[in-house]
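Record type: ASSEMBLY
Status: queued
Input:
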Amino acid sequence: MTAFQKIYTKLNQITKATCSVNATGVGNEELATVDGRLAQVVKIIGDTVTLQIFAGTEGIGTDAEVVFFGKPPSLKVGEDLAGRFFNAYGEPIDGGPELEGEEVEIGGPSVNPVRRKQPSELIATGIAGIDLNNTLVTGQKIPFFADPDQPYNQVMAMVALRANADKIILGGMGLSNDDYLYYKNAFENAGVIDRIISFVNTTENPPVERLLVPNMALTAAEYFADIKHEKVLVLLTDMTLYCDALSIVSNRMDQIPSKDSMPGSLYSDLAKLYEKAVQFPEGGSITIVAVTTLSGGDITHAIPDNTGYITEGQLYLRRDTDIAKVIVDPFRSLSRLKQLVIGKKTRADHPQVMNAAIRLYADAANARTKLENGFDLSDYDVRVLDFAKKYSFEILAIDVNIDIDKMLDSTWALFREFFSPAEIGIKEEFMKLHWKA
Amino acid sequence: MTKGIVKGIIANLVLVEVDGPVSQNEICYIDLKGVKLMAEVIKILGKIAYSQVFESTRGLKPGDKVEFTEHMLEVKLGPGMLSKNYDGLQNDLNKMSGVYLTRGEYTDPLDEESSWDFKPLAKVGDKVTGGDWLGEVPESWIAHKIMLPFTMTGQYVIKSITPAGHHKISDEIAIVTDEDGKDHVITMVQRWPVKIPIRAYVDKPRPYRLMETGVRTIDTLNPIVEGGTGFIPGPFGCGKTVLQHSISKNADADLIIVAACGERANEVVELFVEFPELDDPRTGRKLMERTIIICNTSNMPVAAREASVYTAMTIAEYYRSMGLKVLLLADSTSRWAQALREMSNRMEELPGPDAFPMDLPAIVSNFYSRAGYVNLSNGATGSITFIGTVSPAGGNLKEPVTESTKKAARCFYALSQDRADSKRYPAVDPIDSYSKYLEYDEVQEYLNKHISPTWVDEVTHTKDILLRGKESYDQINILGDDGVPLAYHEKFRKSELIDRIILQQDGFDRIDQSTPMNRQRYMLEFILDICDTDFVFESFEEVQPYFVHLENLCKQMNYAEFEGSDFNRFKAEVAQIVAERRAK
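Status: finished
Output:
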């Protein structure tokens, strides 16, 4: 490699995140080091090459040494990725050996849409708010829209530990060191470490570095899904911090910001990542579960807004004050692909039971409003309120871990406990099968 | 041929120094280590041609060589486009090798080897001009006309024409002589630059004929016409794509072109999987046989996304010139506008609102104006009906793309978050939405003649009931159930009846998903009869249960085979219930 390296030592412009150098024969998106720090070519005008320095430009001098590698950022992929922790550059941070696999460029081409298969396999997580009401399907991409105070990292870790996937790849962007250690301990304690691969950028690392994290994670995912035909789940947290890094770079490059100070290309930038979620024709799949933190629950902000247009649904967490536990909000959450599996890959009564329970849960919300406004409750109101409480506690709460058949059976049991068959309104054929005491 | 070398690279904008003349929108190929990357010139400054590359520019270096082609971005037109899946540059996606899209791989949109059963329509000695029909070949169930290329705008005389028989697309099918006596060989293939409208028609009169979509909230309340334009704005999760898919399945068109522009790949996969299986309700053939999909999903290069809507429109214009009814759907035009924004930004143009280019409204209206109903020179007519979706940022309709489109499109189908949240699908807001065509004299005349003599009045009446119902509902909410006159409850429930039975439609039910016009007429008149009945109620508590019962029965009618035994049974039951409370 050294034979091809070009070295320059005269910078003519330095901003907080970028620098420029006069150089020739440099390719677009090529990797380089500036004073030992990794950088990437983002713009070339004539002889002037602009580099984005991932670690920031603090202390870089105009005489800094710039070394071009002649290749874009890459990752060495192979079975030895499994069970390891890496930084944003794909370098081990767990004290383990260097990677020895084949070197692959990150952020590679997209899958030809006509070669994609329609997603059709469900990914069970043991969380009823997901499996029962918003079923995840392989090849799907879906974010949690969460406020910063919500326990999304715990839920993500829980999804990672329980999901029936062959590989779980964590892309951590701007994780606090505490959260990083939380993930690390959770994975180690659960004894599933050999299924898990982590690329982590913590708040201690420079923000621009995190731009590499999702592509590193997805390149590793493509290796296991496409080459090894495995079922891969990619967890990305927190995409809002990723977008913030995008806006920093575009700002330093004097680009005109669009809505909410985000770059005009935000939609395309996010789509390039999320659309890596795919069901491959040979059986492997990449499923992406991400976290997008909101500011005060505002989903009209450019980041959640663009995300919502790209992803196949969204999940919301909510603290249910009746049971003092966190649940996946059954009203606002949506999995657009659930129709492809519920009642087909799961029990035939699944769609009807799901809808009936959510309708009753909505009736409970209305009854609660009535109660709060000081109206008298009818007998039905009292029953739906009791139902909702038990439904939340026994089924929806995220610490409950049961399989889908059990979720359905438990819901049927609650139906029987509180309601008459007419109030449930489920098709005759399912009533015959499941109503029996 | 002009040549050039790469001088600068900013993402997919490449600065090329040229050694000769170049023109705006000229296509060039950039040589990246033997791989040719297609690019389009979008600005010229002195010797520098700013080109947007339709591919990733990773690894491109200053000094790389560029060749110019002397033509703009073109599509290749000829028989064999039906059922094809193209990318935004008209590459046949099925012909590409490998699971991933390979940079610089361009495939033939047509099949050179397939043979077509040619039948001449013109004869030796005929005077012809660009767009005139020379012959036809059966393509699926369409008589695909072989036309004199649109570029040949002068007068030509047919010197020879190939007799009926099987031919490949590049075989000679005619020789024509121009005014200078020079001969030109005509094949089944021609090319046309996508950014220029095909104008091979006599005139473009105001459209008047209803285009049935099978969606009641459109056909009944705010109809679109053959050759009309409409748009569907809505926040995410309101069912834009589902509504467009449902229009594409049921619309009364000869040909459907779906431009999936910058949207989710899995949604396009749904079309790929479903359309070859679904039956076209009109011809009984598979839906795929009348469909062309132009697919430039959100992860495919941005510049090609911008091209994709033009590619789709040009193919639509080509088929319109054959005298066909074409329906063009674009999902979503906001992604197209964003592609324009990204390029404008890289060229450091002064931005307009929300950083969109200043000329966005002009670009949008120019594009919409390419749709329309046309008279062809041989007396036939053709049409392009265009419906685009808009994805407003933050669901706010006061943003540049929605506002620009509102100025250009004549039908407005506003999807409302509230309706979607309460599962009232399709979530088209009946009060905010409109169709300008309802005001056209020619359209009113057509509707009254073909549906029912009082149809337009009935539709207006329906809208009035909906509006009054909404006003009553607001009053009930402010003043409380017992704070308003009893009549307010009745008005509200009557508007709910229309909402439930006419506006809401179950896109997943075999029967309800598409309603033919005669059934729409029947149901509207049936429901209006109920709405025009005066009922007797003792107290407001009686109103809701009574109407909910009625709604449920009428809903069953929607699910039943039209005028079948179930349908008639429910109808009789409704009549009986109405009679019970009818004011004497």
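Annotation: Chain A touches chain B through 58 residues (CB under 8 Å).
Annotation: The longest helix of chain A spans residues 350-372.
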